[in-house]
Design brief:
The chain is of the alpha+beta class. Helix content is 18%, strand content 43%. It has a five-stranded mixed sheet with strand order 3-9-8-5-6, with no helix packed on it. The chain has a four-stranded mixed sheet with strand order 2-1-4-7, with no helix packed on it.
C-alpha cells in the first residue's frame, strides 16, 4: 500500500471517530436508587448535582403498597408490593427537597439535596 493510501485510510478512520464523537449522546447521570423496606427509605438522604436532570428509582420491598411522593419535586407515584418505579426529575436549584411515602409518612421520609458542582 502506498503512503498516500495509508494517509487516506488514516484520515477516513479519524473522520469516522470524529463523527462518532459528535453523534454520541452524553452519558446520562446514574439514577438515584432508593429502597423501601420496613416502611423506611434507604438511603434516606441523597445528593444530586444542581442544574441537571436525573432519574429516581424506588424499589418497594414491603408487602404493602407505597406511594413515593414529593410536592417539592412534583412527583407522586404508587409502587406495588415488590415493585419498582422510575421517575424523572430536575433540573433543580441548589437546596434540599423532601420526599415521603404517603401511606407511611411518619416513618418513610427522606431528603434529596441538589448541590452546585465544585470547580
Amino acid at each position: 500500500m502506498s503512503t498516500r493510501s495509508h494517509l487516506l485510510t488514516a484520515f477516513a478512520g479519524l473522520a469516522l471517530l470524529a463523527a462518532g464523537a459528535v453523534s454520541t449522546p452524553a452519558r446520562a447521570a446514574d439514577a438515584v436508587m432508593l429502597t423501601l423496606k420496613d416502611h423506611r427509605f434507604n438511603p434516606a438522604q441523597v445528593t444530586v448535582p444542581a442544574g441537571e436532570r436525573f432519574s429516581i428509582e424506588v424499589t418497594n420491598q414491603d408487602d404493602t403498597p407505597a406511594e413515593f411522593e414529593s410536592s417539592d419535586l412534583r412527583v407522586e407515584k404508587i409502587i406495588v408490593p415488590g415493585g419498582k418505579i422510575s421517575v424523572k426529575a430536575g433540573p433543580l436549584k441548589p437546596g434540599t427537597y423532601k420526599f415521603f411515602d404517603e401511606y407511611h409518612p411518619d416513618t418513610a421520609t427522606g431528603t434529596l439535596t441538589a448541590t452546585e458542582k465544585k470547580n
